[in-house]
């Protein structure tokens, strides 16, 4: 037995070298070799180097981040009264984007819709926007009239009347006014998009000819103080955005109402819009699907809404795109667990539907499945700890290595916001004046090498 033990100790030392990266070693069955390897982790995120420093990106105090569909990052920098635009490479955009560098307000939230309209707010009672696409292409003029096919006849009318009537426009029949230079300049400048106190939103709009109500006025909401703290776009087919009001505890659905049709320099005709309230999709309360002191909001590609709040009971909520009912169940879904978060500061969703919640107090990002099941913490430092043990199998000594993943939430310091785009998580690490990037990767499965028993 001493001879067997001596041989086994040599085997133990060899195995510790061979299987240093292994997660487990399963005890073999009769005539079988031990099996080892790192199991593939479909939810592994690796840190991308280098970190992006705020100084490098000309940022001072960014408090919100949004990724457009072309991969550019829009960061609301409240200290500098600007929205900084950054390419996926980390290069700061200039040129036409400098329009967002000299804003008249302090932006605290930003988002874009599929038409490349930029929306932002400063926690006040109005929402601003910048028609980026029109500004980049340039406006040739305002389409004042064009011909429409009315029961086989060509009838000249203004575009709004034609749109409201549902008539088909005759191609290349537009009458364009290019003389109103000051108006054209204003149409490519940042301006107020939604103001609940405007006459349009407070009193409404009715078609005098048909008596049809086009905009339902809301004088009560117009008279209340408001603080829009978060914005989110609706799907492409739904011409609207969402705004979270932290004072009145509402999520407001705001429709895009066409106002002026313009001809761009590339020959394309596009509408300019103003925002009008359609409805409240979430109202005050403490249960599932209600809202209490919201602080962040996002939407996924099919139109589901997600938001975080500091009010009682539940920090994270989901509203289904269809009917805006609660998407999570209390007491069943991990994501709505009481005490689940230290401070759920921000939320984002991947294209696959995974949900990421930035926890400022826990210094991590909590990852959940689309069904609200907790998966793991990410944007943390990870180390593998190996625990080795030995046991006899028959008269031979075999080794079992166990790897334990240890996570250390020491990377983030006072993080403010995050966004997920193209398998990368971007996190504003304000306490360390940097942006951390983590990308989704696949582990390599290490097969058990041949060895002598």
How would you describe what is shown here?
- By secondary structure, this protein is mainly β.
- The protein has a domain at 1-55 and 386-453.
- The chain is 10% helix and 43% strand.
- The protein contains 6 helices and 33 strands.
- Strands 11, 12, 13, 14, 18, 19, 20 and 21 form an 8-stranded antiparallel beta sheet that branches. Strands 3, 4, 31, 32 and 33 form a 5-stranded antiparallel beta sheet that branches. Strands 8-9-10-15 form a 4-stranded antiparallel beta sheet.
- It is elongated and about 100 Å long.
List the SSEs and their pairings.
Blueprint: H1 2-18, E1 24-26, E2 35-37, E3 44-47, E4 52-53, E5 62-67, E6 73-77, E7 82-86, E8 109-112, E9 117-121, E10 127-131, H2 132-137, E11 139-150, E12 153-157, H3 159-165, E13 168-169, E14 175-177, H4 181-187, E15 191-194, H5 199-203, E16 205-206, E17 213-215, H6 219-223, E18 228-233, E19 240-245, E20 250-264, E21 269-282, E22 294-299, E23 305-309, E24 316-319, E25 344-349, E26 355-359, E27 364-368, E28 374-378, E29 381-393, E30 396-408, E31 417-421, E32 424-429, E33 434-441
Antiparallel strand pairs: 1-2, 3-33, 4-33, 5-6, 6-7, 8-9, 9-10, 10-15, 11-12, 11-13, 11-14, 11-20, 16-17, 18-19, 19-20, 20-21, 22-23, 23-24, 25-26, 26-27, 27-28, 29-30, 31-32, 32-33
Structural descriptors:
453 residues, mainly beta, eight-stranded antiparallel β-sheet, five-stranded antiparallel β-sheet, disordered C terminus
């Amino acid at each position: 037995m001493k001879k067997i033990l001596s041989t086994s100790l040599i085997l133990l030392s060899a195995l510790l070298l061979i299987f240093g990266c292994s997660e487990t070693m399963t005890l073999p069955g009769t005539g079988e070799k031990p099996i080892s390897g790192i199991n593939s982790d479909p939810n592994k995120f690796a840190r991308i180097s280098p970190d992006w420093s705020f100084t490098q990106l000309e940022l001072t105090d960014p408090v919100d981040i949004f990724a457009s569909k072309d991969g550019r990052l829009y960061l609301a920098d409240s200290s500098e009264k600007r929205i900084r635009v950054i390419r996926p490479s980390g290069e700061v955009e200039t040129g036409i984007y400098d329009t967002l560098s000299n804003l008249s307000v302090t932006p605290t939230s930003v988002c874009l819709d599929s038409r490349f309209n930029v929306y932002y707010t400063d926690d006040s009672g109005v929402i601003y926007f910048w028609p980026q696409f029109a500004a980049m292409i340039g406006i040739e003029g305002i389409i004042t009239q064009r011909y429409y096919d009315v029961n086989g006849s060509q009838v000249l009318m203004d575009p709004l009347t034609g749109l409201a009537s549902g008539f088909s426009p005759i191609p290349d029949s537009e009458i364009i006014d290019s003389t109103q230079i000051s108006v054209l300049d204003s149409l490519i400048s940042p301006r107020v998009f939604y103001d609940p106190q405007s006459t349009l939103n407070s009193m409404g709009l009715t078609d005098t000819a048909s008596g049809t109500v086009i905009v339902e006025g809301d004088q009560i909401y117009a008279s209340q103080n408001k603080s829009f703290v978060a914005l989110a776009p609706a799907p492409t087919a739904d011409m609207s955005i969402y705004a979270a009001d932290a004072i009145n505890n509402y999520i407001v659905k705001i429709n895009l109402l066409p106002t002026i049709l313009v001809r761009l320099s590339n020959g394309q005709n596009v509408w300019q819009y103003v925002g009008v309230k359609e409805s409240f999709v979430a109202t005050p309360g403490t249960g599932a699907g209600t809202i209490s002191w919201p602080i962040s909001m996002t939407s996924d590609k099919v139109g589901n809404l997600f938001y975080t709040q500091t009010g009682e009971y539940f920090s994270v909520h989901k509203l289904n795109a269809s009917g805006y009912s609660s998407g999570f169940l209390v007491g069943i879904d991990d994501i709505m667990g009481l005490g689940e978060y230290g401070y759920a500061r921000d939320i984002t969703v991947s294209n696959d539907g995974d949900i990421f919640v930035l926890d400022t107090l826990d210094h991590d990002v909590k990852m959940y499945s689309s069904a609200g099941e907790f998966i793991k913490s990410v944007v943390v430092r990870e180390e593998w700890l190996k625990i080795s043990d030995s046991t006899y199998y028959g008269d031979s000594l075999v080794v079992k290595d166990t790897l334990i993943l240890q996570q250390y939430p020491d990377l983030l310091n006072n993080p403010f916001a995050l966004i997920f785009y193209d398998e990368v998580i971007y996190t504003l690490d304000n306490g360390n004046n940097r942006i951390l990037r983590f990308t989704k990767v696949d582990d390599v499965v290490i097969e058990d090498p041949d060895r002598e028993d």
